[in-house]
Each structure stands twice: as C-alpha cells, then as structure tokens.
Specification:
mainly alpha
Length: about 130
C-alpha cells in the first residue's frame, strides 16, 4: 500500500498554494489559519477578483498561480493540464478582466483587494457587486 504524505505548500496573499500536488482552497472564514492577520471573513484577493469578473473555478485556480508569480510551465504541472489549456485559461482571464499582462493582473488584484478598483461598468468582464 502506498503511503500518502501531506501536500507541501505555503500561504500567499492570494490564497493557499500547494506546490506540485494540487491547489487547496482558502480555509473557511473564521478558521484559525484562515485569518492570517486579516479580519475573520475577509476574502482573498483572488476570490474577490473571481467574483468581480465572473471567473470560472478553474480560471480562479490559474489566476491564483498567476498572482503568485508562477509561469505557464509551472501552472501546467501544478494543475495537470496541457499547455494549450493553460494558455486558453490565461487568455480568458485577461479578456474578462481587461488586462494585457500578468503584471497588470497582479496590480488589478491588489486594487480589487483594497476596494480601489476604479474600472467602469462598461469595461469588458466587469460585474458590479
């Protein structure tokens, strides 16, 4: 019988990342490890971004890795998907959020997390909350 080991990972401002094994969703609000210095019930930046721009669950997984500074080969391996699928998800994320680069996505996520998103409702992908 094969012994399973706990996944290795770390906490980022954009959620919990499990390295090379899989993604783990952020802990439930109010859980001791969920607060991480933030107020109980606070959403992560990627969760706010996903809600604001209607990202699918898999696009949210990809966005979480992009926001942590990961590149396409890392995302492909971490999520067990093809390069083409990674590219498709990234294109969709960029289209929905109206950004053109990973750095713009990171900047947008930081603004959304602070509640400073100044995008107009007419912009592509914007969904008022």
């Amino acid at each position: 019988m094969r012994e399973t080991r706990p996944p290795q990972g770390y906490v980022t401002d954009f959620g919990n990342l499990i390295i090379a094994d899989a993604l783990e969703p952020a802990p439930a609000a109010g859980a001791p490890e969920a607060t991480g210095g933030r107020a109980a019930g606070a959403e992560s930046a990627v969760d706010k971004l996903a809600g604001r721009y209607a990202l699918s669950p898999r696009e949210t997984d990809v966005a979480r890795l992009l926001l942590a500074g990961r590149n396409r080969p890392f995302i492909k391996d971490a999520l067990f998907i093809s390069t083409g699928t990674v590219n498709s998800h990234i294109s969709s994320i960029y289209r929905k959020t109206g950004v053109k680069s990973q750095q713009e996505l990171i900047s947008l996520a930081e603004r959304v997390a602070r509640g400073e998103d100044d995008r107009e409702a007419s912009e592509p992908g914007y969904r008022a909350r």
